[in-house]
Design goal:
The chain is of the alpha+beta class. The chain is about 25% helix and about 35% strand.
């Protein structure tokens, strides 16, 4: 599936997304993930810092959705598709380098907000992140525009 440039740019501007998977009881599990790269061919790469519920769910059921919203602009997107788990040993070093750059940008953004007097987390959580445990490679099959219909241009 080819992703529209508008969707690609929106996800590239996000610091994180909400990834939703389905557990063994058919219940939705949602967690925050860092979107590292999104390609126009419909592939999204997400790093997971922990091998927890998301990993367990994807091993049994590859269906996944990722959601991001911009509260200020009152818009958002949900991408639905299937995931493949990429182990640490199989990682593309370029993706890991992209992740490190994204984390550095998040730290800088937090520092600038702190300088401007915006209250936030007293520490810099991004600087304390562990290294990613694995990569989620998602193939998008469906795009859902979350913008209310009366606000769409």
């Amino acid at each position: 599936m080819t992703l529209p440039d508008q969707v690609i740019q929106f996800f590239r501007s996000q610091n994180f997304v909400i990834a939703s998977t389905i557990d063994e009881n058919g219940m939705v599990h949602s967690s925050c993930k860092g979107a590292v790269r999104i390609d126009e061919n419909g592939t999204v790469y997400l790093f997971d810092l922990y091998k927890g519920r998301t990993h367990k769910n994807l091993e049994k059921n590859p269906n996944i959705s990722i959601t991001a919203v911009d509260e200020h602009k009152f818009n958002g997107w949900c991408l639905k598709g299937s995931a493949k788990i990429i182990t640490k040993q199989e990682l593309d070093p370029g993706l890991l380098a992209d992740w490190k750059k994204k984390i550095a940008r998040r730290i800088m953004h937090r520092l600038l907000k702190n300088i401007h007097g915006e209250k936030g987390h007293p520490r810099h959580p991004e600087a304390q992140f562990p290294k990613p445990e694995y990569l989620i490679e998602m193939k998008v099959r469906e795009i859902v525009n979350l913008t209310p219909s009366n606000l769409k241009k």
